[in-house]
Structures are given as structure tokens and as C-alpha cells.
Amino acid sequence: MLWRVPELSALAWSLLILGAVLVGLSKTAVPGAATIAVALFAAVLPARASTGALLVLLMVGDLFAVWSYRAHADVATLRRLVPTVLVGVAAGTAFLAVADDDGVRRTIGAILLGLIALTLVRRTRPRRTVPVRGRRIVTGTYGVLGGFTTMVANAGGPVMALYFLASSYSINRFLGTAAWFFFAVNLVKTPFSISLGLIDADSLRLDLVLVPAVVAGALAGRRLARRIDQRVFERLVLTLTVLSAAYLLV
User: Fold this and answer.
1) Which residues 6+ apart lie within 8 Å of 175 measured at CB?
2) Longest alpha-carbon distance in the chain
3) All residues at 6 or more sequence positions from 50 whose CB lies less than 8 Å from its CB, including other chains
4) pLDDT per residue over 231-243, tens digit each?
5) Contact criterion met (CB below 8 Å) for 79 and 233
6) What 3-state class would DSSP assign to 155?
7) Which of 6, 22, 61, 137 has minimal Cβ neighbours within 10 Å of its Cβ?
8) Which letter does DSSP use for residue 45 in this model?
9) Could you tell me if 193 and 1 are in contact, meaning their C-beta atoms sit under 8 angstroms apart?
10) Is the pTM higher than 0.90?
């Protein structure tokens, strides 16, 4: 029955609730924190079950993020990303059909480390005008990798955070563009996840219990975002991305 609460230990519930709070916080203030939630869910639940349960909670967080930052999105960037993200989601679906959990984690970790290095190099070099073709290649690359990583492990947040960071967005523009991006991408992912059996009655029962924790994290994040300094925000994004990559590689 849908209302029946899953039977888990007190420690397991504590970890899942913490993960749900981090999901909400990541959507409205601290991009990258959702990858910590990925780790917590994977520590408690089987890999496939954790992916499906987390996707629904991420969508709840997306709704709060869109509501909070709906006026700050870079619509032109979102339009450029859409086709390449769809390619990445399709590639991720095919990859999930053949890869094991270790292969998935290590592949994403390697991608993140490569993108971190690229982002740091771009930020240390003097700013110069990039040809339109060059910008399209960069956007397309991030889009494909973002779609791929979000499909296989709900780990697209760090990839796209690096792209928005490299674009030198303000905090609100960063969070607004990310909000609309992941709201759309997670909607697209849902039918694929259902067809793969990642979302089912068991995962939905778990989500019903954890939704209030996501809401609490999202509301706390809105208050935090008004107070955080731009430089602190950027360093936090990079630090969490490095930690995410290290976790996935170990």
C-alpha cells in the first residue's frame, strides 16, 4: 500500500533525512550539496533504488528553486543547452543498460576532475573574446556531459555548476539558470527512469516521508543565499565539486 512507511533503522532514516535536507539546500543555495545526498542515499539503499527515490526528491527541490529564482534564468543559455543535454540523457540511458555501479561512479568522477581542471585554467587566464564557434563547442560539451551524468547517477549538478561558474554568473543568475535547467532535465529523465524500473511504488513511499525534509532544506537555502558572499559561493561550489569527484573515484 502506498501509505505504508518503509522499514529502516533509525540510523538509515537519519542519513536519508539529512540527504533530503541537502537536496533542498542544494537547489536554493549550495549547488553541489546534492552529490553528498547521492552518497548518503547510496549508503543506505541499493544503487538503483537510491537513484529513483532521489530523482523524485530532486524534482520537489526543483519546484522550490524555480519559484525562488524564476526571474533570474539565462534563457538564451538554456536554449543552447537543450539539444546537447538530450543527447547526453540518451547516452546515459544506454550506458546504464550495460555498466555496473563501479564503472558508473568512476566514469563520472573522472569527468568531474577533468572539468574542474578546465574550469580552473579558464579562470586563471586573462579574459578574452571567445569565437562563437568556440562558445558553442564548450556549451555543447557541458550539455552532453551534464545530461549523461544526471541520467546515470543524478550527478549532473557538479558538471553544470562548473559551466555556470565558468560563465561568471552572479549568485541569483547562477541559481536561476540552474533551477530551470534541472527542472526541465529531471522531467525529461522521469519516463526513462520509470522504464528502467528506477521509480516504483517502494521509492514513492519513501519519497512521501522525505518530502518535508526537502522543503525545510529549500526554505533554509533561500535565506542563506541572501547572505552569502559571491567569492565564498564560488569557492564552495568548487570545493563541493572536488569532494564529489573524489567520492565517486574511491
Assistant:
1) 28, 29, 31, 65, 68, 69, 72, 225
2) 60
3) 38, 41, 42, 44
4) 888 788 778 777 7
5) no
6) coil
7) 137
8) S
9) no
10) no
